Amino acid sequence: MSTRILFDADPDKKNPENLTSEELFDIKKDAAISLTHDIFYADGLTVYDVEKKSFLKPEVDYGFVFQDTIATEQSAWPCYRNLEFYNNYNLLRVDYRVYGDILTAADFNNIQKTTTETNILVTELEKIQSHHISSKAAHQATIDAEPDRIVLRNSRGTFNVSEPKSDYEPSIKKEMDQETWERENTDQNLQEQINTIRYSVFANVIPGETTEEEFKILYLSFDGKAYVASNTEKSHKSVIGITLEPISFNGSTDGEIEVIKSGQLIGFSGLIPGASYYLGTNGGLALREHIPSTSFKVFIGVASSDDTLEVNIGNVETDPISGSGNVELGLESLEVTQIYSRDKLFITNDTVQGRRQKKLDIGFSYLSEHSQVAHFDTDEFDQYGEPMFTVTGERILANEQQGIPITLNNSVPYVTDAKALYGKFRLQKTFPASDLFAIDFWMNYKQNADQVLFTLSMGSDIFQLEVTEKEPPYNTEKPDGIPYNSIPTDGIWYNTPEPGRTRLTRFHNNIWTSQDIILDGGDGGFEQDQWYHIGLCKNNDTLFIYINQNVMQFPVQSGNQEAIHIDVNSTLGDIAIDEFMVDPVTAEDFERFKTITVKRIPWASLDYKEKWTVFNVDDPSFFKTNIFQSADFKNAVMNILREENLNGDH
Question: Are the C-beta atoms of residues 254 and 260 closer than 8 Å to each other?
Fold first, then answer.
């Protein structure tokens, strides 16, 4: 068996020097075209028609032929030797990543021959240098010196050179030095072109998208044009680079724009030195931790300073949860060489309701088996499809499409979009008395006016959180004939708006007391259109009230035999509620509550911190497999039977 040796092999697709570009001339239809480098990746390869100024479409205008199976297996990416074009072209530019160049026996011979010739030249130069140094006459020469002298200086201080007898005399050496300098400089320029690949592409951006000059990341669309990329759009995965200069889009743009795919880019501000940056939204950069799990990830580069980015455009990462990323769309299915996840792996054709009912959803694990959670993604019931509370008033299940931004991040991909319960509704639940319980939910209130957000009743001990204003939003009549402002609008006299106050009121021992709530070290309470995480937890003789990163505690009576009642939004204000959890027998500690506040992950049966592998089907009666016939499975069953000593002697 022969051994294959490669020049500059790059099976991990990490070497920026393996990104290259070349031009093809006079391409004939259906001809297999070899590129300069022997083996190349299909992924990321682009073909640009220089005359028509547009990109060719793979599998429509050209295809890949002669797959290199060894390179494909070693890199887990399709690698090929040739391109085949389906039409005639005069001039094309191909940008691609090299897997490596095959080193043949002829290459070895050429290297050996070149090395031998170089050694001979070095030896000859050493001889001439020794002769020159030992020859005193050479350093005392006159203009009448004989031709084999190296150099002559005349009375004006300039050199006269004899007719050269070899390549090493000065007149020739000067020319050779010039050629060497030009060649080295050309090599350096070529290397820069390899490391910094520029594209002249069409960019068509929505008018008025931005008027400030910014670097923009572009992707290649099926129409052969480049557009601003966003990591939220699956069709934007074919990122081709970032604009070489900051640009502004204050109108329709349709022209040539240069982009860089690998190299140094200077002109940013506020970068974190050493941080890795990925594609964000609207052509911008994003830190990895700021990218939602629902968005794909494309590596852009590493910041070497606060204004410099070392660009090295990567491929779409395989998502550790969904497994989406490096897949190919076949005629009837997705074709992949492997399914891999760095964290969780979830394979299912079930609905989100089905997964929750089967206890196969992933998130923050429930406090106990008695925990009830209304997720509001598909209905108003708990995770098992059972009624959980009484709801009255107008409401809908809503998300961004209805103007309600969702604050929670899905820990695994859901079939349905996440939603919240929104409207002017009242939510009530009563459960048996307990010295340990937890109520946990998210709230977003929409109107800064007098409004009771929740009331918690434990017999004669009542806690109430309300948002108040000194004045209502407007008056239909002028009080005492004096308007609150000087300009009436459609017969309505508007009051001067004042910031809302968040107040906690308690009824205890037949006395009402109240206190203003100051959140997160600020100077006020709740704000409109903001999500707040609220927890009400009793632990024996103490009631804890959690709001985001804030905690308050109150002494309460233990052993209370009266039922617990929670009443949310009794004044029917305009609010949104999400992820409403009640556990009637378990308290929730503040550290866990704060973690949920930061992570914003929904409740679930399986703890998100574990590396779960879940294979879940909607209807088990339609699940078929032959793995139970494998020797490994049979041996595993036999080992279990032996360990448990079933049937006496198994």
Answer: no
Whether the Cβ atoms of residue 88 and residue 105 lie closer than 8 Å to each other: no
Q: How far apart are CA 408 and CA 418, in angstroms?
A: 8
> How high is the pLDDT of residue 80?
92
Band (pLDDT 50/70/90 cuts) for residue 130 is low
**Is the dihedral angle over the CA atoms 24, 27, 29, 34 positive or is it negative?**
negative
SS3 342: coil
CA proximity to 90, closest of 61, 52, 60, 46: 52
User: Could you tell me if 96 and 20 are in contact, meaning their C-beta atoms sit under 8 angstroms apart?
Assistant: yes
* 409 against 539, higher pLDDT: 539
Concatenate the DSSP letters of all residues of 250-266 into one string: SS-B-SEEEEESEEEEE
Do the beta carbons of residue 363 and residue 602 sit within 8 Å? yes
Question: Where is 184: in which H helix or E strand?
Answer: helix 170-195
Q: 351, 416 in Cβ contact below 8 A?
A: yes
For the chain, percent of residues with pLDDT exceeding 90: 28
As a whole number of angstroms, the distance between CA 526 and CA 503 comes to 10
CB 189 within 8 A of CB 166: no
Answer whether residue 438 shows pLDDT above 80: yes
Cα dist from 91 to 22, 27, 51, 54, 97, whole Å: 11, 7, 7, 12, 20
Q: How far apart are CA 377 and CA 103, in angstroms?
A: 59
Q: Which amino acid is at 458?
A: M
601 alpha carbon, distance to own chain's centre: 18
Q: Work out the average pLDDT over 291-320.
A: 83
Spatial separation of the C-alpha atoms in residues 293 and 323, rounded to whole Å:
11
- The dihedral through the CA atoms of 270, 276, 281, 284 has a sign that is positive
pTM: 0.49
Alpha carbon 115 to chain centroid distance? 49
pLDDT in tens, 245-289: 888 754 444 566 778 888 889 999 999 988 899 999 988 999 988
The radius of gyration computed from the CA coordinates of the chain, to the nearest angstrom, equals: 37
Q: How far is CA 62 from the centre of its chain?
A: 31
Whether the Cβ atoms of residue 218 and residue 243 lie closer than 8 Å to each other: yes
The Cα angle at residue 510 between residues 504 and 511, in degrees rounded to 5: 45
Residue 293's nearest CA partner among 113, 418, 449 is 418
- Tokens 């190349």, residue? 40
Q: Phi and psi for 43 in degrees, rounded to 5?
A: -65, 130
Give the burial class of 14: count Cβ atoms within 10 A of its Cβ; 0-12 exposed, 13-18 middle, 19 or more buried.
exposed
256 or 153: which leads in pLDDT:
256
Type of residue at 346: F
Number of Cβ atoms within 10 Å of the Cβ of 195: 18
3-state SS, one letter per residue, for 97-145: EEEEEEECHHHHHHHHHHHHHHHHHHHHHHHHHHHHHHCHHHHCCCCCC
Integer Cα distance of 408 and 601 in angstroms:
6
- DSSP state letters, 386-421: ---SEEEEEEEEE-GGGT----PPPSS--SSPP-EE
Return the closest-CA partner of residue 320 out of 293, 301, 285, 280: 293
Token look-up 């992820």 returns: 579
What are the tokens at 111?
């290297």
First to last CA, the chain: 49
Q: Give me the residues paired with residue 92 across strands.
A: 24, 49
pLDDT at site 483: 46
- How far apart CA 100 and CA 5 sit, in angstroms, is 9
Beta-carbon contacts of residue 22 (< 8 Å; ≥ 6 apart): 35, 36, 93, 94
